[in-house]
Amino acid sequence: MAITSASGAAAYDSEAAAMQAYLAEGERKAFQLGNRGPIRFDTNGRLTQDILDAYWRVGFYVFEGVLKADELADIERDLKDILDRLPVEQGSAVDKHGRPALGHDLKAPTLFWSKPLGDPFGGTELANGRHPVKMHEPTAATDAPKEVVYLILGTLQHSEACLRVYGHPDLLGIVASVNGADFTPFNEALFIKEPGRGASVAWHQDGVTHWDAPDWDEGTHGFNMMAQLYGCTAANGVWVVPGSHKLGKIDIKSWVAEAGSTRLPEAVPMICKPGDVAITNRQSLHGSFANTSKDWRVTVNQGFHRRKSVLDVEAGGLHAARAVYDAARIRERAAMLGYGIAARHQRFPHETPFVYKPHADEGLTYTWDEKAKASIRDYNLLDLSI
Description:
12 strands, alpha+beta, Jelly Rolls
């Protein structure tokens, strides 16, 4: 048992009490925003205007009850397999059973590690330095491992269940409504916030290429779509500053200094139940705290862009090597949409598959079979990062 001085214990208790009050107040404010409900489309197949208005006003929206029990069970099975196949430690080529570990021989970025309850990006120059302030790092239990995996990229090659979510017709209908029918992919990830161990993600805004562009607007850097396997709470979920996607590049250090801590008073948490799916503007100021709660958060994350934000633009961010995204590169990366739609139709044949306009315009068709599975290895080397 660690020995703590009286003054140290008092400071700890004060910090814990302040955080609990912050979480409760944030949750209260979150449910007053008017930015949650079921998916609803109009007669033209577009999100209803009130949903779009709420999204653009706040910068995020929670769609309730999207993924049903059978699909959540599929995702959970794949998650357990992924966790079972992780390297025994960072840099190891084998898992705990001595088998080749997940991602050990891939070229693309795959596994991201942190000390339990740590903040691996905050206050560093990683990811173009966009996490300028380190979050509070609570002390983990003495029996916690040295490091944990908290983020996995390129997840569509590791989980057919995640690939099928990628092809969900209603979710792709949301993307088309926000980013246009010719939208493009960005990247996919799995965020894992293990109870008592899950790392924080320091306050940041996504996007690096277009902040000073003359045609910049509140949707220039796209959005992330986050499907929740177990739901998320104020303690383990993503927090967003409403309306911050409209403000351009924010001086995050100054905001934190003014607040006196990383508990930004304007921020609210995304509260979700299992199967809810949230969309969050990438330009919003957002982050998450270390998961000291008893609840898991597992988020199936997918990012999307407007085509005009990507076409003939030089790559930026940590997801892509330097390149200019021409039409051929976009088409190659968007093949994952075709595979996702095909894979989903195999599992849920009663659904009407989504029609991705760029594929339809070019007469492209995709089949999900063993050849396709082999072809997507390291597909995230083609991520469209801006």
